[in-house]
Design brief:
Blueprint: E1 4-5, E2 8-13, H1 17-28, E3 33-39, H2 42-52, E4 56-59, E5 62-63, E6 66-67, H3 68-75, E7 83-88, H4 93-101, E8 106-109, H5 114-126, E9 129-130
Parallel strand pairs: 2-3, 2-4, 4-7, 7-8
Antiparallel strand pairs: 1-9, 5-6
Helix pairs in contact: 2-3
Length: about 130
């Protein structure tokens, strides 16, 4: 039987369009990953993530119409298979704790942990290998 490699699907949620563009460039260097959408607001994110059902979501904390907590509360119960990676400059221990308690899978500081965040996406992509 041949090994098949399916691309891991990623959705980006950040209120900054330039940052979303930068993340797309970083993701282009990660093998076996397909970007399936992006949003800058809670409302758009919830609707589009529900429609796309990505493997993981890179999620900023502060959004145009709310926070990552609003996205997590809307989707965590109905989409437990999605890995939510909080990627934010709001990286206090309190914000970290509340995001993880709300269902985030991982939490990363934008200023210092992009490589760690990309490493998690790489690991997610490597799990998409099907025999």
């Amino acid at each position: 039987m041949n090994d098949v490699r399916q691309a891991a699907t990623v959705f980006i949620v950040d209120d900054s369009a330039p940052l979303r563009e930068s993340l797309k460039l970083y993701l282009a260097d990660v093998g076996n990953v397909s970007l399936v959408g992006e949003a800058g607001s809670v409302h758009a994110a919830v609707a589009d993530i529900t429609a796309q059902a990505p493997d993981c979501v890179v999620l900023d904390f502060q959004l145009l119409d709310g926070t990552a907590l609003d996205v997590l509360r809307a989707l965590r119960r109905t989409s437990p298979e999605i890995e939510f990676l909080i990627f934010t400059s709001h990286s206090s221990q309190q914000v970290r704790d509340v995001c993880l308690q709300a269902g985030a899978s991982h939490f990363f500081d934008k200023a210092t942990e992009i490589d760690a965040m990309l490493g998690v996406i790489t690991a997610i992509a490597s799990r998409k290998h099907v025999s």
